Amino acid sequence: MKETPILQCRDLTKRYGNHTAVNRVSLEIQPGTIFGLIGPNGAGKSTLLKLFTSLIAPTSGTVQLHGIDVQLDPAAALRGSGAIIEWPYFYTDLSARRNLDILSGGQGPEYRRKLAEITEFMRIGHVLDQPVRTFSTGMKQRLGIALALLPESDFVILDEPTNGLDPEGIVEIRELIRSYNRTFGTTMLVTSHLLGEMEQICTDLAVLRDGRLRAIGKLEELLHHDRRLLVGCDDPGRAKLLLAGAGLPLEPLSETGDELEIALLRDCRAEVNARLVAAGIRVWKLEEKHSTLEEFFLETAGEA
Bridge partners of 208? Predict the structure, then answer.
């Protein structure tokens, strides 16, 4: 039986005068996923996140978190959720610990246990009593993620969590997000302009442009819609004829030099190899290709 979505929105629309920032967006986020939201500047990503968290009210449409309407009962809907949108302001002269206490509103022994668990996982436990002004950009990003995770969150929104980081810091944050998701099953909604990073982090993806949803689905399925197989062999012409009549889920596309390109409906590399070898054709390359997230993004959202 299909699980109840953690987040569900229907025909969500937000207008500012004559400008429509979000236009009839409908989507679901399933438990345990890392859901990526990408789009060019001005696509409506930040507006959508604010609608999800009741920071602004929709012109029309609905948002439910944990099955509860965000507009009708925001406190109950947002319980168990954490969000960092456009990143928080920290009191730089106060310690990281004091910032987390103030900004999360947490207190008591259960909060202290959770604080210790999360800050150790985010690798900032050893600097909790240092002033935030001494933190690097990467450490502030970790502190922001820790703040989002503190309210016993099973759903977390992270808006541009790798913004401003050097390559090493980007890799660290990426691994922390993936590891936390795997370890605790926390559902995450992540936005980023770094498409290569999103391709490595996300299980699901939505593409937004001009306030409209242009694509949505499992990342693997979206990127594999044009799967191709490159076959390197000593007789591509005969291989093309042989495979065309073999009844396999493929379609020979082109022949260039000693390579044959094939469109795939599923992975059948072993079957292709077996049939060609059995026919006496020497095979030295079987390489599956598919769109990168960057290619898919340009295809669905345009270069803007």
Answer: 213
Structure tokens at 203: 């299980």
Question: Tell me, what's the pLDDT at 18?
Answer: 93
Percent of the chain with pLDDT over 90: 45
On the 0-12 / 13-18 / 19+ scale of CB atoms within 10 A, 206 is: buried
Cβ atoms of 205 and 27 within 8 Å: the answer is no
pLDDT tens by residue, 118-142: 999 888 999 999 999 999 888 898 8
71: left (phi over 0), alpha (psi -120 to 50) or beta: alpha
Residues 76-81: contacts with CB under 8 Å, at least 24 apart: 78/53, 78/54, 79/151, 80/151, 80/152, 80/153, 80/154, 80/155, 81/53, 81/151, 81/153, 81/154, 81/155, 81/156, 81/157
pLDDT grade, residue 257 (50/70/90)?
low
- Rg of the chain over Cα atoms, rounded to whole angstroms, equals 24
Neighbours of 58 (CB within 10 A): 21
* Cβ proximity of 153 and 82 under 8 Å: yes
Q: Which residue has the tokens 């968290």?
A: 53
Name the band, by pLDDT with cuts 50, 70 and 90, for residue 167: confident
Is residue 118 within a helix (H) or strand (E), and if so which, with residue range? helix 108-121
Question: Residue 252 above 60 pLDDT?
Answer: no
**C-alpha to C-alpha distance for 69 and 67, rounded to whole angstroms:** 7
Q: Which residues of 148-183 are buried (b: 16+ CB within 10 A; e: fewer)?
A: bbbbebbbbbbbbbbbebeeebbebbbebbbebbee
How far is 258 from 241, CA to CA, in rounded Å? 14
> 232 vs 179, 236, 238, 272, CA distance in Å?
38, 7, 12, 12
C-alpha 264/C-alpha 82 separation (Å) is 41
- The answer to whether residue 253 scores a pLDDT higher than 70 is no
How far CA 231 is from CA of 21, 27, 77, 81, 248, in Å, comes to 46, 39, 52, 48, 15
